[in-house]
Amino acid sequence: DMAPINNVRVDPIKRTAQVGGGATWGDLDHATHAVGLGTTGGIISTTGVSGLTLGGGIGYLTRGYGLSIDNLLSADVVTADGRLVTASDYQNEDLFWALRGGGGNFGVVTSLEFLLHDVDTVVGGPMFYEVEDATAVMEFFRDFITDAPEELGCFFAWQIAPPLPFIPEDRHGDLFCALVSCWNGPVGDAERVLKPLRDVAEVKAEHVGPAPYPALNSAFDGLVPKGLQHYWKADFVTELTDDAIRAHVEHGQKTPAVNSTVHLYPINGAVHRVGPDETAFGHRDMKLAAVIAGMWPDPADNEANTQWVKDYYAAIHPYSGNEGGYINFMAADDAGRVEANFGRNYPRLREVKAAYDPNNLFHLNQNIVPAR
Hints:
Layout: E1 8-11, E2 16-20, H1 25-33, E3 37-38, H2 49-55, H3 62-65, E4 72-78, E5 84-88, H4 93-99, E6 108-115, E7 117-118, E8 121-129, H5 134-147, E9 152-160, E10 175-183, H6 190-199, E11 205-206, E12 209-212, H7 213-216, E13 229-237, H8 242-252, E14 261-266, E15 288-296, H9 302-316, H10 338-342, H11 346-356
Antiparallel strand pairs: 1-2, 2-6, 3-7, 4-5, 4-6, 8-10, 8-11, 8-12, 9-10, 9-14, 13-15, 14-15
């Protein structure tokens, strides 16, 4: 249990943060926001910094600042044989390469050092559209996010309306599709940048406006309390084709619970400016990361809701254009996809695994089998 190691120390001059291996993104955002800084980190503040980062790290700031691993400067790691080592561009470089996308395969990360950027007041939040407009919204999103300003984070979602004040009371519990945005450019430009999102279809409800970045990065925490049942499936997406959109619309309409959702995260912009061999994250040419996040409170619904995830995934996977997916979104029964999930870098990852964990002590993960 790493939770007690949740310290965060910010250096506003060097624009770096030293983060304990048990810290959450809420801990990090709280410390960095005090000096107007931040870095790429998920969309839920209770997510662990270390776990999200080791798998890659996709969030609101990805298009502008890259993945979390693209902002990782160093990491302190306890290896399988009990050594404490530091990994960086000039110390244990092979381990540092592998940590940036290889998951928890190489040791226990006790501290991480991040590069920080200007992140203060952002403009964003969800816009809800009718399910009948989902095809048009997805087609718009596909084209718009390709060339949108990189200061804009935006993802597509299915969402059953929770009982929140900005949603008309008679629509609570109804299913909508949504675009969730985060504009990290000049506040005065936000209305112009976000206007196309409002023009694509009638917005039935929205909660979009200026907010401290930590407020947006914790806005969905209430949908993922502790104790939920979970079953997820995921793909990287080469192109969101018309056939894929039809499959999304067919199965998205069956979203079973307010906690369950499907997100399509863009991984272009700054992500594409890092070479596919520079870090262990082996899918730098993908456009989207899709996740079917099945979550619900009652174990009695496990069979039916798990089947929803499986059927949805079976429908969209043939159109993904590749076999791999984001390891942070993988379920326990995705072990057979490990090589595809790590992509072109899997053989090198096996070599590093053999050097630092030859007996595969760290195996309760998307496991990389040691080369020897």
